[in-house]
Amino acid sequence: MNEVLLSRLFRHQNLLTSRLVFSSCCQLWVLTPLMAYGSADTLLRTYFPDGMSESLIAYLLNGVLHALEYLHRMGYVHRGVKASHILLSAEGRVYLSGLHSVYSMMREGKRMRAVFDMPHHSPALLPWLSPELLRQDLHGYGVQSDIYSLGIVACELVSGRVPFQDMPPTQMLLQKLRGSHCCLLDVAPFPLGELGGLKVSRSGVDSGIGESVATGSLTHSATAPPTDRPQSPAPKNHSATLHNLVQQCLQQQPEHRPSASALLSHAFFKQVSVFVVLVYKQRDVVSQTLVVVVTGESTHQRLLPQPHVPGRATVQP
């Protein structure tokens, strides 16, 4: 219900809000736009098991930051930023979902410096939650908690694996409170000192828009990846700007992390020029979508199956 109410309040091109809400047979129905390409988590598990290219990561995170900048300016903290809450439409627009975890920092018309509420379903969100939110002390947490989550998402998109995911909750909590952090090892992100014998796992599949709301399905299933999907080179050499972005987001002290608006001008996002999604026809049947990320220095191409919705050529800044 909280998500439904907030959907009527928020108006932003990068936030997934409801288009229609109605009740039928004692059930509440919420209609949202169809996200033809599903979530970033779906793309990771299906097409980029070893992580996405930096250009695609920059484009996705840029959209998320615009959504977070809007939420933070409105006085809300998201508390649920992760890859499965980052959705991609057929037109190539990035949406941030998971509004059920959003929490207001406004009290009696004044903005609080910190809040103390623990989000629902927090066990599933533990890998992405900030140390100050998990600490639950008198200092509380604020919007900078979302910036930490964004840093974890960056690691998630780089390698296709979630940092801290395979740790028991108690160990994960201790690692975060002690200041153990993730870094880009140019192969995969893991907590420092926890590499030996550590298993890896894929991201969660919660899209953040409710079980009754479906996202567009891709041609191949996640459990049986297509044999012709592009393979990421190994090992990876990440740019200095990506390393710097992750380092800034994952600062232990929240006051040392940049704001969402400040991160939008980070050097890592200068490569985002345009993102083109071309849907072309072959023998009058839409066959596949060519995803092209145009950057200042080069152009990266990936072939993805056409989602099960009509499409057209579009260019989005």
UniProtKB/TrEMBL annotation:
Residues 1-269 form the Protein kinase domain. Keywords: Kinase, Transferase. InterPro entries: Prot_kinase_dom, STRAD_A/B-like. Residues 211-238 are annotated as: Disordered. Pfam families: Pkinase (PF00069). One of its GO terms (biological process) is protein export from nucleus. Residues 214-224 have a biased composition (Polar residues). This is STE20-related kinase adapter protein beta-like isoform X1. It comes from Solea senegalensis.
